[in-house]
Amino acid sequence: MGLFDSQYSNKAGQVDQNRLPRHIAIIMDGNGRWAKQRGLPRTAGHKVGAEVFRKIATYCKNLGVEYLTVYAFSTENWKRPETEVSVIMGLLKQYMLEAIDSMERDQIRLRFLGDLSAISPELQELVERTNAISSRIEGFQANVCLNYGGRDEILQAARTFAAECAAGEAAPEELTADRFGGYLYSAGIPDPDLVIRPSGELRLSNFLLWQCAYAEFYFCDTLWPDFDERALDAAIIDYQRRDRRFGGIK
Ligand code: FPP
Asked: Measured between alpha carbons, how far is residue 30 from residues 36, 122, 131 in Å?
């Protein structure tokens, strides 16, 4: 099976193809609990979780969603045992190597969001290679948050702007929300329309804090390794019932 193959299609036709969220963001939560329930090491949950990411990315692309952003590794996840961190990094490396071979054929752009200075030189080099390929591709974009924290992202944006002001290249009163967005890791990516958190947790956990200002949230109890195309359909259908007002009135 190729990197972005998927067997499932939305045959029930309940998802309104004309009102798809343009950008879906997912906190891939519950891998550890899924593994524990089966008497397996937590890392077994991450391995299945990485497969589920591939399946959901393919499905989003085929459905016509333009951007999928997933939370793969947070700035706080370094606190986990070394073996767990190393398995997650290994899964990311494996995915990047596969993507380098297949993303052009599959027309998938890949972008990594986060403080990438802290990841290994080997992974940094793979990120650069995927970036170079992505620059030649148009269409669906998968964003993988890696050593990502929403507060960290806002702080580094503020520091960059402050440095420009100190250098006389910018003035504080010039700062608008649009301009500030351009200093974030997610510069150029539209804000998420729908944020999904499986596994029963009802928190944002430092994910896309700036970008989620008007996002619709969807929570479900399914653990990420059990999440599938039907679960995504359910989230999109729920989203399509919402009345988005962006602070205005109808
Ligand atoms: C949260 O579940 C999951 C993570 C911190 C890691 C997610 C990473 C992957 C799925 C692999 C990334 C690879 C690719 C290709 C994107 P948890 O461990 O906190 O689960 P728990 O709450 O049940 O303990």
From this structure: 10, 28, 29
Confirm or reject: Cβ of 31 under 6 Å from ligand 1.
Answer: yes
DSSP-derived secondary structure letter, 69: E
For residue range 195-237, what is the model confidence (pLDDT) as tens digits? 999 999 999 999 999 999 999 999 999 999 999 999 999 999 9
Residue 224 alpha carbon, nearest atom of ligand 1: 2
Is 31 considered catalytic here?
no
Q: How many residues are present in the chain?
A: 250
Q: Is the model's pTM score more than 0.85?
A: yes
CB atoms within 10 A of CB 97: 13
Beta bridge partners of 71: 27, 145
For 120-148, the pLDDT digits (tens) are: 999 999 999 999 999 999 999 999 999 99
Of 209, 221, 216, the closest CA to residue 244 belongs to 216
Please tell me if the CB atom of residue 77 comes closer than 6 angstroms to any atom of ligand 1.
Answer: yes
Distance (Å, rounded) from C-alpha 6 to C-alpha 57?
9
Q: How far is the CA of 30 from the centre of ligand 1 (A)?
A: 7
CA distances from 228 to 35, 167, 222 (A): 17, 50, 9
- The region, left, alpha or beta by phi > 0 then psi within -120 to 50, assigned to residue 199 is left
Is 178 among the catalytic positions? no
Mutate to test the pocket of ligand 1, among 88, 130, 146 (most ligand atoms within 8 A of CB): 88
Structure token pair of residue 130:
């995927």
One-letter amino acid identity for 90?
A: G
